[in-house]
Amino acid sequence: MRLDKLIEEQLHTPRKAMKRLFQTGQILVDGKIEGKRERNVDSNLHEIIVQGKQLKTNEVYFLLHKPQGVVTANQDKQHQTVIDCLAPHDRHPDLYAVGRLDRDTQGLVLLTSNGQLGYALMHPEKKVMKRYEVTVNGPLTAADQAAFEQGIVFHDGTTCQPAGLTIQQSSSEQSQAMVMLMEGKFHQIKKMFLVRGVKVIALKRTAIGPLTLTDDLPIGTYRRLYQEELESLVDYFH
Ligand code: URA
Q: Which positions carry the signal peptide feature in this UniProt record (predicted)?
């Protein structure tokens, strides 16, 4: 969470006093004076000391294996949402999903109360790699691979960044592949394959940056991030 928000919440520091705290170097993060008020901190990753007092944050991070049919939203009148997949006591009011998956897409979703982290993970400049397993209704060839590498151009002229396509199995009726993507345009993978003349019939996200869909996360289940997983995200905390 934002460092100044944490200090305000826990030490009830008035505005002027807050400014002084930062100006006079009384805030230490991992032993170094921190001057950035909006610095994103988590006490599971950082030691936060303000005027000699250690502060603790209370952010939540869940990995969900989203089933098909569930919408990536906090509320929906018609369909079950990713928040509905959580036990009522885990439905923290600030939780939201980092990056959308379509209703018919299965796979890994990060749910967190840490909005700054979510923003950083989705920012195009950060180039966070997302990995998908895809089944399409036709053959895939080296020409498709080359087109993905080049950057697919949608029918409306939108150009995608280069993406990785690894063909695992190909036949005239159906093919399986792995796609590595750094962007998150609306229906991106479906549209990319449509440009190549085939239709996506199954899509599953298996990784978001260093976070991967592990065997201990059967479809429809969720768990808190392991400490090592949170540590693997430390570069996205600024
Ligand atoms: N691309 C898509 O087309 N759909 C998703 O859900 C994710 C990526």
A: none
